Amino acid sequence: MNAGLFFSPNGRITKGQFQTGAFVLIAISFVLALLPAVIGGTMLMAVSALSTLIGLVMIWCWIALWVKRLHQGGITGWMTILLALGWFFVNMIVGTIVTAVMAPELMSMQPTSGDFMEIMQQSMEASRAVAIPSAIASALVGVGYVFVANMALPSHDSENQFGPAPS
Fold first, then answer.
1. Could you report the per-residue pLDDT of 119-139, keeping only the tens digit for each?
2. pTM of the predicted model as reported, rounded to 2 decimal places
3. Vertex 15 angle, CA 11 and 18, to 5°
4. N or C: which end of the chain has fewer CB within 10 A?
């Protein structure tokens, strides 16, 4: 697996290459989602900032991966927007359900004061309460979404407008 798989949207990739790349990104996301359960206090704020930067880089990696997979089927990379919206909504629904089941008190949580640091502390405590179930649910949604989309998307073994067939 080379870095071009994640950082360049040009070209095409096979179903297997796509699935391998997606599983790597899902695993990284899983680890990042578990951080609130493992790290606490002020260290969590620092790690959260780094985690956010890693998350932004991963968005580009997902875009590059999906675009190349779509190119394999002769589909424009712009369809990645629809796939991302679908993934976003499914994750939002599952996340809401997980929170409602695992920590229903978080659904109606209100800040007790206007103090920024207190609000941040409450937010960190809330994220710790659902970190593990949310990470598991998000990983399962990701694996399922990638698997279904990968199988549903066409794949062409001959050259198309996006380049030669991948090897």
1. 777 777 777 778 889 999 999
2. 0.86
3. 65
4. C
Q: Which of 67, 52, 50 is nearest to 7 (CA)?
A: 67
Cβ atoms within 10 Å, residue 61 = 18
Contact, 12 vs 68, CB < 8 A?
yes
CA distance 69 to 37: 34
Would you say 145 and 151 are in contact if contact means Cβ atoms under 8 Å apart?
Answer: no
- How many whole angstroms separate alpha carbon 118 and alpha carbon 165? 55
Residues 130-167: b if buried by 16+ CB within 10 A, e if exposed:
bbebbbebbbebbeebbeebbeebebeeeeeebeeebe
Residues 63-98: b if buried by 16+ CB within 10 A, e if exposed:
bbbbbbbbbbbebebeebeebeeebeeebeebbeeb
Contacts of 83 (CB under 8 A, 6+ apart): 66, 149
Structure tokens at 74: 């002769």
Helical (H) or strand (E) element with 22:
helix 15-38
